[in-house]
Design a protein that fits this description.
235 residues, alpha/beta, Rossmann fold, 7-stranded mixed beta sheet, Bacillithiol_biosynth_BshB1
């Protein structure tokens, strides 16, 4: 798909479908208003029990269309190989400096999947490194400071600092998730996994309904802030 030179929001996931599970509603709320958003998949999820790299990429492209993304980037790191090497961090920093997002999204640091927690840590480090002027000068790039870093939930839930109403786009969130048919739809040739059991998507929607209830809507998504949330006034 076409890739943008600048986005307002850049959402990182360890695997294709991570952002769709945790923050597709937030992405849709912004893209539907013409705000450019991109996703970066650190890996192709090649070790997943179902699907393969070609299938996952086609599914991710379909999800990208549904979400109205300005770009989707694949860094091609090894699945279960997010080791935080200087080379991995350098690729992530380069993308942040290139796209100059104001807001970055990353998986929450508490999750049952080690790749999700590793991605969370790597994004935090990359956001920090992207703004170091001397480091940027050494690498022949311009520094970029991200205004806000938020963490979204994938397999777990918790106390959210920000809750965003996604009721009006929730049907499209479900469509974007189900674009990854190999992961979420059971079949005779597919292995039974936590993702393709009926309880998984019910859990995701139930969590989004709980957050929605907290703000008086049907569905919402929660984010945790990496730092203080700046405000001029309370009202």
């Amino acid at each position: 798909m076409e890739k943008s030179d600048h986005v307002e929001i850049l959402a990182f996931g360890a695997h294709p479908d991570d952002v769709e599970i945790g923050a597709a509603g937030i992405v849709l709320r912004h893209t539907s208003r013409g705000i450019p958003v991109a996703i970066c998949d650190l890996t192709d999820g090649e070790l997943s029990s179902n699907g393969d790299v070609v299938t996952r990429r086609k599914e991710a492209d379909r999800a990208s269309e549904i979400l109205g993304l300005a770009g989707r980037y694949r860094l091609g790191f090894a699945d279960r190989g997010l080791n935080g090497s200087p080379e991995q961090l350098a690729e992530m920093v380069k993308l942040i400096r290139r796209l100059k997002p104001q807001v970055v999204l990353a998986p929450h640091w508490e999750d049952r999947h080690p790749d999700h927690t590793a991605c969370s840590r790597l994004v935090r480090e990359a956001v920090f490194d992207a703004g170091i002027r001397k480091k940027a000068a050494e690498e022949g790039e311009a520094p970029h400071r991200v205004r806000q870093l938020f963490f979204y939930f994938i397999n777990h839930t918790g106390q959210a600092d920000v809750i965003i109403d996604v009721s009006d786009v929730y049907s499209r969130k479900k469509e974007a998730i189900l674009a990854f048919e190999s992961q979420f739809v059971p079949g005779p040739e597919r292995a039974d996994t936590p993702l393709n059991r009926p309880t998984y998507l019910a859990m995701v929607e139930g969590r989004d309904q709980i957050w929605g209830h907290q703000i008086g809507t049907s569905h919402a998504e929660g984010l945790v802030s990496a730092g203080a949330i700046p405000m001029d006034l309370l009202i």
